[in-house]
Amino acid sequence: MTNITLSIDDEVYNKMKLFSEIKWSEFVRKCIQARINELGRLKSNIHADENLLAENWLSEEDNSAWENL
């Protein structure tokens, strides 16, 4: 398995610490995998341009969850 490093705002990090029961690495891995799966479906079903693929893909529920971190 390959390691990557992410930079996040201190404010977000402090909020993450409030939920220490969450395995944040696993959460991020699942988010990345979901995005890769979605992009694969998009590319195989339509010829989407790069601007479309770069748009925010989070649902309203996802955005709300991130706001509360």
Q: What does this protein structure show overall?
A:
- By secondary structure, the protein is an all-alpha fold.
- It has a domain at 25-67.
- The protein has helices spanning 10-17, 24-45, 50-54, 60-67.
- The two termini are 27 Å apart.
- The model has no long low-confidence stretch (mean pLDDT 83).
Which characteristics define this entry?
mainly alpha
Give a quick summary of the entry.
This protein is an all-alpha fold. Helix content is 62%, strand content 0%.
How far from one another are the termini?
27 Å
Q: Based on Cα principal axes, name the global outline.
A: globular
Range of strand content: under 5%
Class from secondary-structure proportions: mainly alpha
Count of strand segments: 0
Calculate Rg over CA atoms.
15 Å
Overall pLDDT: 83
Report the biggest beta sheet as strand number plus sense, adding barrel if it closes: none
Total of helices: 4
As residue ranges, the low-confidence spans are none
Helix percent band: 55-70%
Order of helices and strands: HHHH
Blueprint of the fold:
Elements: H1 10-17, H2 24-45, H3 50-54, H4 60-67
